[in-house]
Amino acid sequence: MITKHILSRRKFLQTASMLGAAAFLPLSWPALTTAMDAPQSLQFSDQGKSALGDWSASIHLSRGYLQPNTPLTINVELTLSPQWRSAIRQAEGAPSDYLLLITSERIFDAQGWMRLPGDERMSTLITPTGIAIEGGSSGAISKHAGSRYKNPLDELLTIPAQQLQPAGTDAKISFSAKPLIPQDIPPGIYRLRFDFGIVINKRRRNLSNEGFANRPREAAELSLLYSQPLLC
What is the pTM of this model? Predict the structure, then answer.
């Protein structure tokens, strides 16, 4: 059953175009509504530092936006430093599998309201005296992470450790997925969340050897990254 929204997706895209939202999005405008017919890939990369060592990831999306009822091809290459591999072996032993959890987060709805999965140091809810009300979870909104909420994009990929490939002193492992974007996904501006992890002794852990798909409050030690904003 397709959910009815106050503002249609086409009307939302036309409004976003007139308001100049294109300046913040990785998509060539102004003909956004017609651009949906032509695939435009998006590639980005980032570096991270977990509690055990450095890592980096390169991500390629077959389109720079989310189109309902259409598959989105996602290719990810995770690079792990020798320091990280040495530290995890000393802490727990060699991983049996490597994990990637891909989820979506709607950051603005079709009416322009900001949406946050968890309120940290800021909030759209305030007390009568004007103090921000913090709350929610900083973990991924995913059935694979124990969330009670559903996510229109919720893909857990597991790759055996035997597929880890040497790359100089580093090691790389590749993930690939082709999820179908649901027909009834609410319109808005989204970002994709990529949580990296491992399996050791049949337990899922993140790259800091902590709870999988959780984000620490301090940004210095992360096992995840986000995409640029994506229109839907």
Answer: 0.81
Length of the chain measured in residues = 232
What CA–CA distances, in Å, run from 3 to 8, 9, 13, 111, 184? 11, 12, 18, 16, 6
Tell me the CA distances in angstroms from 164 to 79, 91, 171, one per residue in order: 9, 19, 6
Distance of CA 192 to the CA centre of its chain: 3
| Digit-coded pLDDT (tens) for 105-132 | 999 988 888 777 666 666 767 888 888 7
Q: Are 61 and 43 in contact (CB under 8 A)?
A: yes
Residue with tokens 């990296």: 196
Q: Tens digit of pLDDT for each residue in 32-42?
A: 444 444 458 99
For the chain, helix (H) and strand (E) counts, in that order, are 3, 13
CA atoms within 13 A on the CB side of 138: 14
Encoded tokens for 5: 């929204």
Q: Which residue has the tokens 């559903």?
A: 150
The DSSP element (H or E) to which 56 belongs, if any, is: strand 53-61
